[in-house]
Write a structure and sequence with these properties.
Distance between the termini: 41 Å
GO molecular function: dioxygenase activity; iron ion binding; L-ascorbic acid binding; oxidoreductase activity, acting on paired donors, with incorporation or reduction of molecular oxygen
CATH topology of the largest domain: Rossmann fold
Pfam families: AAA_18
Structural class: alpha+beta
Number of domains: 3
Radius of gyration: 30 Å
Bound molecules: 2-oxoglutaric acid, fe (ii) ion
Keywords: Dioxygenase, Iron, Metal-binding, Oxidoreductase
CATH architecture of the largest domain: 3-Layer(aba) Sandwich
InterPro entries: Oxoglu/Fe-dep_dioxygenase_dom, P-loop_NTPase, Pro_4_hyd_alph
Protein name: Fe2OG dioxygenase domain-containing protein
CATH class of the largest domain: Alpha Beta
Strand order of the largest sheet: 6-15-11-18-9-8-7
Length: about 525
């Protein structure tokens, strides 16, 4: 999708400043008001004839750019033409119709969004005085004051043109209009933020990007960045060392982002600093924000960003919740991408105890729930074609099981240096350990779990019995199924991130309801793993 953002409004209402800032923040090309540019180029204050303006504007429209922020544009140029025409100075025939055609032409393969800036007369005058500008071109012998009045009408004509265009648009040339009151909407940064948010909403209304998600990302990018800087030991230093070319004033107290940096710069810098790859998106203005969110949250860990009940229980305050999530997400992202291995997380003695409990449960000495079908299991593959028969699944429910879970949490806290891992969920139905026993020939087909509990944070799978061959655990970020066979495609298999050498006590932490995962065929022996919600 290509996008043209046109900024329209009366003289001195802040078009140039806002358009330039908005463009910088979104990584867009900024196209200055053309009449002004041509007058500058010609070294004359007298303005340029309307035909030339229309021809040159149309020429600029043909440039192949994804995202442009263009000041005044055709509709504004038309406002000037109308002023000239009213005073008997117009050149050009039929300019109104041709101007509209020019916009429609662009709207055929671009989304066009007009920002109409509204500003009180008083505020416009204040801004004119402040800027010391008396650059209005001499126009039909009008004095400066008369001219200033006339520019208001020029703006009004442009706005009326925009309204007409939007009202008469067709499915083939869609255009949106967003009115922003710049006399009351506060500081320039705030207005730019409002423009950004409003643009997202406009895009959402038109259904060509998933704007709900994008605007969520924008918010979470900000929240995540703020929290990450507070929460992650060393991140502040890391970012500072990374030497931003500029800073982000709007992150209060961050102290690491120098003045004047655009959001996109920051996002990119953060992604670089964290050694994660920025991902691109087809929505140009949001690419950097998406990149940041993807970078920090890791797509497959998104679940970690909306853990509902469990999170509220573990972390009573909102700040704590975000902090904890950001930390967890960063853990996994920075270390590995989307799964983290902690070697020897659980002691051999504890592994033996879990295996012992499995045996006890089998003998009926412990409360247990067995069988895959008790589990609301959402296979990634077609459930019917999935043969998990050789896996025995046991939910061991006991005080010891609960104690194991507490130990896993404590071990993770120690290993990561992050104490919130040590806070296990309160007693609940998750107070069991899920033990998987794989006999020879067993494999766990690629799947995501529809979790049996509300603990949708992360899962730690601990290998507790390692007398087996092959049977590698894997995660597959970009898994694909061949619809004709219901099996993962060969390309998809090749992309698996395999962990072939997990041994007794090793844990792999990942998001089990977001990331496709499984266990390859066990060639020999018996593989026993225990799965904890953490
Ligand atoms: O046995 C394993 O390693 C995988 C367990 C699993 O799929 C899970 O815990 O969700
Ligand atoms: Fe699973």
């Amino acid at each position: 999708m290509k996008l043209v953002v046109a900024v329209v409004g009366a003289h001195c209402c802040g078009k140039t400043t806002l358009a330039r800032k908005f463009a910088a923040q979104t990584g867009a090309r900024f196209d200055q008001e053309l009449g002004e540019k041509l007058a500058e180029e010609a070294g004359t204050a007298a303005g340029v004839d309307d035909e030339t303006v229309l021809a040159r504007e149309t020429e600029r429209d043909r440039d192949d750019v994804c995202l442009r922020v263009v000041e005044t544009w055709h509709t504004g140029n038309f406002g000037w033409h109308k002023l000239r025409r009213d005073r008997g100075l117009a050149d050009g025939h039929d300019l109104e119709a041709r101007t509209r055609r020019a916009v429609r032409e662009v709207a055929r393969d671009h989304k066009v969004v007009f920002f109409v800036l509204r500003c009180s007369d008083q505020e416009r005058r204040k801004r004119r005085e402040k800027s010391g500008r008396t650059r209005l071109p001499p126009f039909d012998n009008m004095d400066e004051e008369e001219m200033f009045e006339a520019t208001f009408r020029v703006g009004e004509v442009a706005i009326e043109e925009v309204r007409q265009l939007v009202e008469t648009q067709t499915a083939e040339n869609r255009a949106g209009m967003i009115v922003v009151d710049v006399s009351t909407d506060g500081e320039i940064e705030d207005i730019v933020d409002i423009m950004h948010a409003e643009l997202l909403k406009a895009l959402a209304r038109d259904d060509f990007v998933d704007a709900e998600r994008l605007s969520g990302s924008m918010r979470s990018a900000r929240v995540a960045l703020e929290s990450a800087i507070d929460a992650v030991p060393g991140l502040r230093e890391l970012l500072a060392r990374h030497k931003f070319p500029a800073v982000q004033r709007r992150i209060p107290g961050s102290g690491v982002v120098p003045d004047g940096a655009s959001e996109s710069t920051i996002v990119k810098e953060v992604a670089d600093a964290l050694c994660v790859t920025s991902t691109s998106t087809s929505s140009p203005p949001l690419a950097p924000l998406r990149a940041f969110v993807d970078a920090v949250s890791c797509k497959d860990l998104e679940g970690a960003f909306y853990i509902p009940e469990t999170l509220r229980r573990i972390c009573p305050t909102k700040k704590e919740q975000t902090t904890s999530l950001v930390r967890r997400a960063l853990d996994a992202t920075v270390d590995h991408g989307f799964a983290v291995v902690y070697r020897g997380l659980v002691s051999t003695a504890a592994c033996d105890a879990i295996v012992g409990e499995l045996e006890a449960a089998r003998r009926g000495e412990l409360e247990k729930i067995t069988g895959l079908n008790r589990h609301k299991w959402k296979n990634f593959n077609e459930p019917k074609t999935c043969s998990n028969a050789k896996i025995e699944l046991t939910f061991v429910k006991s005080a010891v099981a609960r104690q194991r879970r507490v130990e896993v949490h404590a071990a993770l806290a120690k290993r990561t240096g992050r104490e919130e891992w040590a806070r296990p969920n309160p007693p609940s139905k998750e107070d069991h350990v899920t033990v998987f026993a794989y006999v020879e020939g067993a494999e766990l087909r690629p799947h995501r779990d529809k979790d049996i509990s509300d603990a949708k944070a992360l899962t730690a799978v601990v290998v507790v019995g390692d007398e087996f061959e092959e049977g590698a655990f894997y995660v597959n970020k970009d898994a694909e199924v061949d619809p004709s066979t219901g099996h993962a495609t060969a390309e998809s298999r090749a992309r698996r991130q395999r962990f072939p050498d997990l041994r007794r006590g090793d844990a792999v932490v990942f998001c089990n309801d977001k990331t496709v995962h499984g266990v390859e065929r066990v060639a020999k022996g018996r593989r026993i793993s225990a799965s904890f919600r953490v």
